[in-house]
Amino acid sequence: MKSDIEIAQEAKLENITKVAESIGVSADDLEMYGKYKAKLTEDFLKSIADNKEGKLVLVTAINPTPAGEGKTTTTVGLGQAFGKLGKKAIIALREPSLGPCFGIKGGAAGGGYAQVVPMEDLNLHFTGDFHAITSANNLLAAMLDNHIQQGNQLNIDTRNVVWKRCLDMNDRVLRNVIVGLGAKTDGFVREDHFVITVASEIMAILCLANNMRDLKERLSKIVVAYDTAGHTVTAGQLGAVGAMAALLKDAIKPNIIQTLEHTPALVHGGPFANIAHGCNSVRATKAALKMADYCITEAGFGADLGAEKFFDIKCRQAHLKPDAVVLVATIRALKYNGYVPKDKLSEENLDALKKGIVNLEKHIENLQQYKVPIVVTLNSFVSDTKAEIEFVEKFCKEKGCEFALSEVWEKGGEGGIELAKKVLDTLENKKSDFTLLYPDEMPLKEKIEIVAKKIYGAASVNFAPAALKQLDKLTDLGFGNLPVCMAKNQYSLSDDASLLGRPEGFEMSVREVYVSAGAGFVVALTGAIMTMPGLPKNPAAFNIDVNEDGVITGLF
Questions:
Q1: Of these residues, 44, 301, 521, 556, which one is catalytic?
Q2: Among 227, 267, 378, 452, which is least packed by CB within 10 angstroms?
Q3: Does the annotation count 165 as an active-site position?
Q4: What CA–CA distance (Å, rounded) separates 241 from 114?
Q5: What is the distance between the alpha carbons of residues 89 and 98, in angstroms, rounded to a whole number?
Q6: Is 301 designated active site?
């Protein structure tokens, strides 16, 4: 069996200008990055502003397991299937982070015959967007420390600096560091921290900004520290906004590449969903809606994280109204949620499937709260049996969902025809009455509790004393109307990664709360979630190499 990277490397790519032409985008509307990558120009984005919007389809999934779910694979395959049916569709995806690429997860460009390409470029440096975000983040950090060194006119409390440096790599030793050691001229000695770039507020800002003006306004609102009187100190007050925006001037433009079947894909931005808000950029999504009749996008990890944030943060801020949701599951993953060991997942086990399907059930119920029509799809594996497939199909229909089998990994767009027809039928015959989970004016503490109870299934929420103080302070500072961005492990509906299936009656712990004022949300850290991951004992980096001809191996 060929690996994903072998399939991608054997594919014959079309020049990106030809792919763009298929959806009415001329070569003059592109800024080229070689033959197969480009950015959409600002002039082009302005020219489509008054176009009619297409239909918006969100692809999400059950909680991830070691068995694999194939959310991105399904998203790509569904877009290819729309093309097979003669429909004008564009896929809108996130850019992968280097952290997971070299850590546990590996590449993130889809899989099998449902991939976006060039796969190696996408998983490595791509068009440099993440490097620009890292540079802008760390410029702000440097200007903050320089301000303190040069007299501290803003009276920054050096014990209350909240802006962190970042790096797009899983590097646990940088989580907590001491800076400013050495001579007096080397800066003020203080504790500092690093986050992974995809958890940086600037990543979230880039993905939520509508244009350069909006980007600069958001950058100016970033809270970097508090002064000795407890007031916020912002990036705008430090005079950092113009230089940061200059670093981001190209990164803010959506990237266009192609699938293995030459379906256009806008791949832009990449906030983590277990830490940040987990969606591709608003600019890419809105551009796709103006460029095609259908935009197929995804939200990171399970529906408890990615879909909730897509709805309650991205759609709230960007005034998007999704028309349908595709919920991805696999029989293997459902059996894993029934506590079947990974090496036994290929064996038929209806009892385990019945136990584990409660995870799918909870995600269906969660999505139904948003009043958007749902299509459940099983990402097919050769080990799936007829009895198992029929059981899941019957279960989904009893829950009021459409159901389709997906074989896009093996067959590409052809394997997604059944799913595509179900999605199209849903779009044509079922109305979306999209509604948010909570109103803006609800207090922050109640917003956290409603997500924990209604989405995760918690019985209660335990707020650490420090978190309660932070909530009160943020409310007093005027941030009470912002949505909440829950930072939670992705493997369980709860904040305990070991609890599979559908945990109930548990208490969720919130240990810290802070504001991302530029992004426009308040982050709540739950359980043991880390904003700077670490590498495993045997990282994926061990398997990655490049030969003398420049051919990369082992990415996925």
A1: 301
A2: 227
A3: no
A4: 40
A5: 28
A6: yes
Tell me the average pLDDT of the chain: 96
Three-state SS letters, 434-497: CCCCCCCCCCHHHHHHHHHHHHHCCCEEEECHHHHHHHHHHHHCCCCCCCEEEECCCCCCCCCC
Active-site residue, selected from the candidate residues 37, 94, 221, 283? 94
- List the catalytic residue out of 39, 55, 71, 355: 71
Task: Give pLDDT tens digits for 63-118.
Answer: 999 887 899 999 999 999 999 999 999 999 999 999 888 987 666 788 899 999 99
Question: Nearest-CA neighbor of 4 among 93, 101, 98?
Answer: 101
- The pLDDT of residue 106 is 65
Catalytic residue list contains 454: no
Candidates 310, 381, 395, 521; catalytic one: 381
Q: Please report the pLDDT score of residue 105 as a whole number.
A: 65
What are the distances in angstroms from CA 140 to CA 40, 221, 290, 460? 27, 12, 34, 38
**Residue given tokens 């950015």 in the structure block:** 39
Candidates 273, 276, 329, 333; catalytic one: 273
Annotated active-site residue 73? The verdict is yes
Q: Tokens in use for 487?
A: 């930072």
Alpha carbon of residue 397 to chain centroid? 29
Integer angstrom CA distances of residue 5 from 33, 124, 129, 140: 21, 13, 22, 37
Cis peptide before 118 (omega within 30 of 0): yes
What whole-number distance in Å separates Cα of residue 17 and Cα of residue 37? 9
Return phi, psi of residue 375, to 5°.
-120, 120
Q: 261: which 2 tokens?
A: 């079947």
Establish whether 8 is a catalytic residue. Answer: no
Helices 201-208 and 129-149: angle between axes, nearest 10 degrees: 130
Q: pLDDT tens-digit profile of 190-213?
A: 999 999 999 999 999 999 999 999
Which of 105, 430, 453, 473 does the annotation list as catalytic? 105
Q: Tell me which long-range contacts 401-404 makes (C-beta under 8 A, separation of at least 24).
A: 401/327, 401/364, 401/374, 401/375, 401/376, 402/373, 402/374, 402/375, 402/376, 402/426, 403/375, 403/376, 403/377, 403/378, 404/375, 404/376, 404/377, 404/378
Predicted confidence (pLDDT) per residue in 212-239, tens digit: 999 999 999 999 999 999 999 999 999 9
Average pLDDT over residues 260-276: 95
Mean pLDDT of the 240-269 span:
98
Q: Tell me, yes or no, if 71 is annotated catalytic.
A: yes
Q: Which CA distances in Å does 37 have to 76, 138, 182, 495?
A: 17, 27, 45, 39
pLDDT of residue 289 exceeding 90? yes
